[in-house]
């Protein structure tokens, strides 16, 4: 995923997927053009880390597996999200602001998974639901603000079709000690 250095903590502008690259095959869609206007490109779909597939179609809906904030195949940060004023954890922490940016990365990765099964993101008619998981310090209660990173990005690139129902859940730990994970339910034509 290509992002400006200021958009994703710890990432350099040169470290991401070029904005003109895209997952799968086919010409760039209007959705991908809007991503490019934001300085973002679709990455290759992340390989599953267990026994599942990145996305499946059922009827006219795509269900993505949970997507982690991989950038160039790597997690840029690990640990629990904490504002730093709660808890007494010795574990690595990620600020809510950084976690919000990582939630946006998860959303882009989820769009890549959607494209891998429907071929063209312009076929999306609605993001039905976003489910976001935040690896949280036990006292952290700002999960909705973190998952706003995914929601706001989907609104920017899909307009009205990006408005959705949502859950934002705090959890004790996520796979690979990721700070955030996002999955989508997408309707398409």
From TrEMBL:
Annotated SUPFAM superfamilies: YjgF-like (SSF55298)
**What InterPro entries does the record tag this protein with?**
Endoribo_LPSP/chorism_mut-like, RutC-like_sf
Q: Which residues form the signal peptide?
A: none
Residues covered by region (Disordered)? 1-28
Pfam families in UniProt: YjgF_endoribonc
All copies of domain Endoribonuclease L-PSP/chorismate mutase-like, residue ranges? 32-187
Q: What is this protein called?
A: Enamine deaminase RidA (YjgF/YER057c/UK114 family)
Q: Which organism is it from?
A: Arthrobacter ginsengisoli
Q: What is the lineage of its organism?
A: Bacteria, Bacillati, Actinomycetota, Actinomycetes, Micrococcales
